[in-house]
Amino acid sequence: MMDSKLITFIHVAKLKSYTRTAELLNLTQPAVTQHIKQLQEYYKVKLIMKKGRQISLTEEGSLLLKYAKELESNSLLLERMLRNKSAVIKRYNIGATMTIGEFVLPHLLGEYKRLHGNIDVIMQVHNLEEILKRLGNGEYDLGIVEGPFEKDKFNYKKMKDDELVLVAAPNNSFAGRETVNMNDVVHSGRLILREKGSGTRMIFENKLLELGYDLSDIKIYMEVGSIGAIKSLVEADLGVTIISKAAVRQEVELGTLRIIPIEDIKIMRELNFIYLDQRPIDFTEDFISFLIQNS
């Protein structure tokens, strides 16, 4: 269990406010002040500087925050692991980015549950940025992501490769071409993309940078956080998009969307499992092995 004074310190550092920390933790403001004072007395250093209403961390405060967050993460993981030890139904939390969570995992989770009746796998779907944050905070036992991440901060294992493709409605001007030049795509004025922070968006922008484009020159018509909404907008011929091939398989088969090759360019990415050292090893290794064999 985390020391309550460290929990208070983490929130003060995050919120930059004693008042808001007190409200969030259901404490009085003097209690928050006392917690910080006790930490400073214990470590014999100044952790927080106040200038008027502004709050900032000292160098020592920043160091304590780093290790306090690690303790908080480990505490959450340990709590779940201990509860699972004696539980009849064991529960594990995973985070998946949107393409994976919506189009790769659902049927696989159902099959895994059929084979493991005593295990509940709880999946939450977020963009890449949010998954990395929550995994680092100890909220997830495993992340499954598309897009780049800092590989020195997480353990990882490749699940499979995925291709991003240009997609348009059948009556769109691009749909009648055998191939489309990337210049036409980025300057079409009708480019619909995922929001910043998504794995798909990061991979596409990294490919553009690799090709020598200035991202500030790219004409983006809409930014949309839902893959389903993007597909509906493109089906209505309100624009074109770059999207996972797996995410539009059904629409392409039905003829409501078309994939148009981009001239001399393939946009490939890895789908990866990511996890921390402090994880439920038996579950993660078995689950990873199952998904690799069946995806």
In short:
The chain is an alpha/beta fold.
Can you tell me about this structure?
- This protein is an alpha/beta fold and 295 residues long.
- 46% of the residues lie in helices and 22% in strands.
- The protein folds into 3 domains: 4-68, Arc Repressor Mutant, subunit A (Orthogonal Bundle); 82-160 and 270-294, Periplasmic binding protein-like II (D-Maltodextrin-Binding Protein, domain 2, 3-Layer(aba) Sandwich), CATH 3.40.190.10; 162-269, D-Maltodextrin-Binding Protein, domain 2.
- The chain has helices spanning 4-15, 18-25, 29-43, 59-86, 98-104, 106-115, 128-136, 182-186, 199-210, 227-235, 249-254, 281-294, and strands at residues 48-51, 54-57, 90-96, 119-125, 142-146, 155-168, 191-193, 220-223, 240-244, 258-260, 267-275.
- The strands form 2 sheets. Strands 3, 4, 5, 6, 7, 8, 9, 10 and 11 form a 9-stranded mixed β-sheet that branches. Strands 1-2 form a two-stranded antiparallel ribbon.
- Helix 9 (199-210) links the parallel strand 7 and strand 8.
Oligomer: single chain
CATH-defined topology of the largest domain: D-Maltodextrin-Binding Protein, domain 2
| Share in helix | 40-55%
Alpha-beta content class: alpha/beta
Question: Would you report the number of β strands?
Answer: 11
Radius of gyration: 23 Å
Strand percentage, roughly? 15-25%
**Known CATH architecture of the largest domain:** 3-Layer(aba) Sandwich
Terminal Cα separation, in Å? 38 Å
What is the mean pLDDT?
90
| Poorly predicted ranges | none
Biggest sheet character: 9 strands, mixed
Provide the domain count: 3
Regarding CATH, which class of the largest domain? Alpha Beta
Task: Output the number of helix runs.
Answer: 12
N-to-C SSE series? HHHEEHEHHEHEEHEHEHEHEEH
- The outline comes out as globular
